[in-house]
Write a structure and sequence with these properties.
By secondary structure, this protein is of the alpha/beta class. 35% of the residues lie in helices and 16% in strands.
């Protein structure tokens, strides 16, 4: 069995400003850095064999803060990237409420396929290990949706700096 500690990156400037970040890199706020440091402190006594991060900067920065006390550097993967919001990327979220979705938004099927591939990769590459992975709000929901075989709307949103434990068989 592999233990996956699934975390969400710390708060970003775009989170605060309600900007649809999608697959942009983003930058942690001072509060986001504190969230990552608090998670690092909580995880400092936990044995972790590997750290994996989305290849987007906000997750890499969060994961580096968490992995530092363990003396490890995170490995990055595009499988953990946030959902690609296509034409909505960079826009103010409240303005999008009743707008039709652009055709270039990543489909739910594609998102869940990435989530499945991520879970398979972790299980294959880290059997019997504990892995801490830092992703994003929507991809983390998709991973849990696939893992628990639940619709996305039934998975509670993760807050910035939150971690959830999944036991992969």
């Amino acid at each position: 069995m592999t233990t996956l500690l699934l975390a969400r990156h710390g708060e970003t400037v775009d989170n605060v400003n309600q900007i649809m970040q999608g697959q942009t890199h983003g930058m942690l706020t001072p509060n986001g850095i504190r969230q990552a440091e608090a998670l690092a402190a909580r995880m400092s006594g936990v044995h972790i064999d590997a750290f994996i991060s989305s290849d987007l900067q906000r997750s890499i920065d969060t994961c580096r803060i968490i992995s530092h006390p363990h003396g490890m550097e995170p490995v990055t993967t595009p499988l953990l990237r946030e959902r690609d919001w296509g034409g909505f990327t960079g826009l103010y979220i409240p303005d999008l409420q009743d707008k039709p979705w652009p055709p270039d938004v990543e489909s739910m099927a594609m998102l869940k396929d990435r989530a499945r591939r991520f879970l398979r990769m972790v299980a294959k590459n880290h059997p019997g290990e504990t892995v801490l992975a830092v992703g994003h709000g929507i991809i983390n929901k998709a991973i849990q949706s696939v893992f628990y075989d639940k619709p996305m709307h039934e998975v509670q949103k993760m807050t910035n700096g939150e971690v959830r434990r999944l036991e992969i068989l």
